[in-house]
UniProtKB/TrEMBL annotation:
This is YXYXY domain-containing protein. Signal peptide: none annotated. It comes from the Bacteria. GO terms for molecular function: DNA binding; phosphorelay sensor kinase activity. InterPro entries: Ig-like_fold, Quinoprotein_ADH-like_sf, Sig_transdc_resp-reg_C-effctor, WD40/YVTN_repeat-like_dom_sf. The chain crosses the membrane at residues 746-764. It comes from Mangrovibacterium diazotrophicum. One of its GO terms (biological process) is regulation of DNA-templated transcription. Residues 768-817 form a coiled coil.
């Protein structure tokens, strides 16, 4: 029975048909990224999908965002790891040291606890611990010549071997131990020699892999693979055996149908037992170096590699494979075509080819450049059993490995076979549309299509023979050509002004022989009866969840790829002609696609070759993604005021307890992560702190959120993760409480209350005393104010009486002066008049004597004339004017002085006129005083106005009164 199983197993391995060689995608992590030692000896994974690495510098962990390094007790190289999910312990082995890491429940820090210190003293020198695993309920530590079994009660069972142990593992209920000299197993707490394993003697066994029905695979360093069924050891010959023997196996693992080996010189090889296909990861395919010290299948069936220098992640479980590995040097992929056992590849560096199917070899074949086909190659088409290539330099016909340039065309975008005109091909170069015709198995330039001058990369023939052309900026053209294909006889243009929502990025696709236009608001098709574009209900329903416009490509089995910037979806057609759209499985590929130019090809019905920014990938159309059960995780809650303060650390076992944050640490940072290792920056987060935020934050790739000066109270932190590679959204939450400050506790409030009552008592007493004092002070002040008021009133009364007396005195003095002045004037006038009368009397006596003596008439007339002059002279005499002016100033307070200062050019008569006007005399009264006529007074007034610079509307009397 056992032999039959082995035979069937071998037949299965060598008889399954294989597709073309494909290489898994690789992510590399250099030492400068993870910050640890160069070598990584063992790998494991926790229940919350955190990766663990036994590194030269200690325990290295990675959660897809951050790397953490933890030393072991004696600071030696960590060689082995084992994660125990039941206890959430990470067991680690080093040189003469082993123990476990755990998360401290108080400090939430990762702490190491040594177990080897509990060994008997004679057992404490055991060299390196190379393997740790669980055997029944015991943790097993395998060293150079020791096997330690740590039992649940803390006791150790120790097994010694006569020979140096190469490796060991657990198969079913046995610990299998491989030495060069013999093979052992531990069963029922006893060490036994394994029978019939002589073929393994002298060989270095690097991996013991359990398989079905109790069979075991022994992988030796340089002597190949062997199987053991419990009775017989048999060499296992696979197609990868020569590779393994030449490159020296260092480690191995089996996971489902995947058999993987890490080598010293050749990197990684993975054998798919079901399909027989091999995958390689080495320096030629993008690995950092070829020495694989450890390997581990994670929960998604991808493989982590611990290298001699660095860490790598090999995406064996992915919907796509690299055709030529990450070290492809052929440029950006534009188009591909499989034709006559050759795969042609058009890139921005030229046209390349490689044999097809490609050989399944460790080093992927590198495509060769066709002679004279450098420059950007835009398209490849198989038309009438010929290969046509659109190149930046023109159009080419490819035959085998030779390229013939077709004279006539310039840089050519694409070719379309015209089914309504057999033997003719419509093409478009940098000038516009042109026609190729086949003559004696060669394509030649026939003519340009007149009447249409646009150039485009996208054009299709409709079922009626008309041509659709999409211009990336202007819109869509529908052309009808003449029968001889020389002229556009009819054209209709569709744009934002005519049936389309926009001018740019309207994409033409041909599905099931029909033309569809994908625009910003969905899919349109041409209605030949109305001659208009109408919405297509079926396609819009199929791709309603996607962002438009979409480029559609129909597969050989009539499924539809839908491509857009940032998205790649596959609509699978069922037997009824309806579609079921998968928008998530292939989303991770979308960012790599080069979808604007060129075309894709199909390896078979199930595999599509897509053009990407660094070459070409093969996509499995039937790929069913393995569910990523990684959970979004609140990693830590830290106090930002003290970086060493951790209030919470998320692990697989800790139950969310009542997280309390002291008030003096109320500025915190919440760290979170969603483990996702296949691509970088594919997770974005939004969060919302209940009782603090008003709404969710915007999506961002930051993996922490800080809050400062949180008030006391309970909070709930909501976190939402968005996986942009798969479209999956996940949420989690955590509750915590910010404690009140010491001055906000119940005890503090009780103290506040007692203190408040005492203070209120003394305050009341103090206020009462102060009130009484204030009342007394107020009464005393009021009495004092009354007395002061009375005194002030008496003083004011006396002051007013004095002022009144002074005013009366001043009035009397003025009046006395005035009376004195009048008396003096009267006296002077009387004297002057008396003198004048005396003179008149004398003059009249002389006249009388002259008459008596009969003097001459002329003498008498002269004397009479002298009397007349004397009277006039006395009337005009102004010897008392100064006296008048003095009295006038006395009454009108220096009026004349002010007048003279302001108007120094005024004459005496002008000043007199001003004085009389100030006294309010009328013109008649002033004429009498001046001994002149009223008219002369008016003239004097007029002249005075001019001297005073008065305007026509100014009143002279008012002006004089206002001075």
């Amino acid at each position: 029975m056992a032999r039959t199983l082995i035979i069937l197993f071998l037949i299965l391995l060598v008889s399954v048909d294989k597709t073309t060689a494909q290489q898994p995608s690789i992510r590399n992590f250099a030492t400068s990224i993870y910050g640890g030692g160069t070598q990584n000896w063992c790998i494991s994974q926790t229940d919350n999908k955190r990766m663990l690495f036994a590194n030269n510098s200690g325990l290295l962990t990675y959660d897809s965002d951050r790397w953490f390094l933890f030393n072991i007790a004696n600071n030696t190289n960590v060689r082995s790891l084992y994660y125990d999910g039941e206890q959430d312990y990470i067991y680690a082995g080093a040189s003469n040291e082993f123990g476990y890491y755990y998360t401290d429940s108080i400090t939430f820090k990762t702490t190491y606890q040594s177990l080897s210190i509990n060994l008997p003293e004679k057992e404490q020198s055991f060299d390196e611990v190379w393997n740790i695993y669980k055997y029944k309920d015991a943790i097993t530590f395998q060293c150079k010549r020791h096997i330690f079994l740590l039992k649940p009660d803390g006791e150790f069972s120790v097994f010694h071997t006569k020979y140096r142990i190469e490796t060991s593992t657990v198969v079913d209920d046995k610990i299998i131990i491989a030495c060069k000299e013999a093979t052992y197993y531990i069963f029922n707490n006893r060490l036994h020699t394994m029978n019939n394993t002589d073929l393994l003697q002298g060989k270095s066994v690097r991996a013991i892999l359990p398989y079905v029905n109790g069979m075991i695979i022994f992988a030796t360093a340089s002597d190949g693979l062997y199987t053991y069924d419990g009775f017989t050891t048999t060499p296992l010959m696979l197609d990868i055996s020569p590779f393994l023997e030449n490159n020296q196996i260092f480690c191995g693992a089996i996971h489902g149908d995947m058999l993987a080996f890490g080598t010293v010189r050749g990197g990684l090889v993975v054998k798919n037992i079901s399909s027989g296909q091999n995958s390689y990861a080495n320096v030629s395919t993008g690995l950092q170096n070829n020495t694989v010290l450890s390997l581990f299948f994670d929960s998604l069936n991808n493989i982590w590699l611990g290298l001699d220098q660095g860490i790598s992640y090999v995406l064996t479980e992915a919907p796509y494979k690299e055709l030529f590995g990450h070290n492809n040097q052929n440029g950006t992929g534009y188009s591909s075509l499989i034709f006559e056992n050759k795969l042609y590849l058009a890139t921005n560096q030229g046209l390349f080819f490689t044999p097809f199917p490609m050989p399944d070899t460790p080093i992927p074949p590198q495509p060769q450049l066709l002679a004279n086909m450098t420059g950007q190659a835009w398209s490849l088409r198989n038309i009438s059993h010929s290969v046509l290539c659109g190149n930046d330099d023109g159009a080419y016909q490819i035959t085998g490995t030779e390229a013939r340039k077709i004279p006539g065309p310039e840089g050519t975008w694409d070719f379309k076979e015209l089914h309504h005109h057999p033997g003719s091909v419509l093409s478009c170069d940098y000038q516009g549309l042109y026609i190729l015709k086949e003559v004696e198995n060669q394509w030649v330039f026939s003519n340009r299509v007149e009447g249409f001058n646009e150039t485009s990369t996208a054009f299709e023939e409709d079922s009626d023979g008309s041509i659709w052309v999409s211009h990336w900026q202007k819109g869509v053209y529908h052309l009808w050509l003449s029968d001889d294909l020389t002229t556009v006889v009819k054209m209709k243009f569709y744009s934002s002004e005519n049936e389309l929502p926009t001018n740019d990025n309207n994409i033409i696709s041909k599905i099931d022989g029909k033309i569809y236009i994908s625009s910003a608001d969905g899919f349109y098709r041409y209605d030949s009866e109305s001659g208009k574009l109408v919405k297509d209900a079926k396609l819009n329903a199929t791709f309603q969840s996607l962002e438009h416009p979409l480029r559609l490509i129909e597969t050989p089995r009539r499924d539809i790829w839908a491509v857009n910037t940032g998205s790649l979806s596959l609509a699978k057609r069922d037997s009824t002609g309806n579609y079921e759209t998968d928008t998530l499985t292939f989303r991770s590929i979308a960012k790599r696609l080069q979808a604007n130019l060129g075309h894709i090809d199909f390896i078979d019905e199930n595999h599509t070759i897509f053009n990407v920014e660094n070459g070409f990938i093969s996509v499995n159309n039937d790929y069913i993604s393995k569910r990523n059960d990684a959970q979004i995780l609140i990693r830590r809650i830290l106090g930002t005021k003290s970086t060493d303060t951790i209030f919470y650390a998320g692990t697989t076992k800790n139950v969310q307890k009542n997280i309390q944050i002291p008030h003096d640490q109320n500025s915190i940072k919440i760290e979170y992560v969603w483990p996702q290792y296949s691509s970088d920056k594919s997770i974005s987060f939004s969060c919302y702190l209940e009782n603090y935020d008003n709404e969710w934050t915007n999506q961002q790739d930051a993996v922490s959120k800080e809050y400062t000066q949180l008030r006391k109270g309970s909070y709930t932190f909501h976190l939402r993760g968005h996986n942009m590679a798969t479209g999956v959204v996940q949420e989690t939450m955590i509750k915590f409480t910010v404690l009140p400050a010491w001055y906000e506790t119940l005890l503090a409030y009780a103290i506040y209350l007692v203190t408040f009552i005492i203070m209120m008592f003394y305050i009341f007493k103090f206020l009462k005393n102060r009130y009484d004092r204030r009342i007394h002070e107020i009464e005393m002040r009021r009495e004092r104010q009354l007395r002061e008021r009375e005194t002030q009133l008496e003083i004011e009364r006396q002051k007013k009486e004095k002022e009144l007396i002074q005013m009366k005195k001043e009035e009397l003095e003025i009046e006395l002066k005035h009376k004195t002045s009048l008396l003096a004037d009267s006296t002077m006038n009387l004297i002057r008049k008396n003198d004048m009368l005396q003179m008149l009397d004398n003059d009249l006596s002389e006249i009388s004597n002259g008459i008596r003596h009969q003097e001459a008439t002329h003498t008498l007339n002269r004397k009479i004339q002298n009397i007349h002059k004397s009277i006039h002279s006395n009337i005009k005499e102004d010897e008392n004017w100064e006296k008048f002016e003095e009295n006038f100033n006395l009454v009108y307070v220096n009026y004349m002085k002010k007048l003279t200062e302001q108007f120094p050019h005024l004459k005496m008569n002008d000043r007199k006129l001003c004085a009389y006007l100030r006294m309010g005399l009328s013109s008649k009264e002033m004429a009498s005083l001046f001994n002149t006529s009223i008219r002369s007074i008016e003239t004097a007034r007029y002249r005075l106005r001019k001297k005073l610079n008065l305007g026509h509307d100014d009143n002279l009397s008012d002006f004089i009164q206002s001075l």
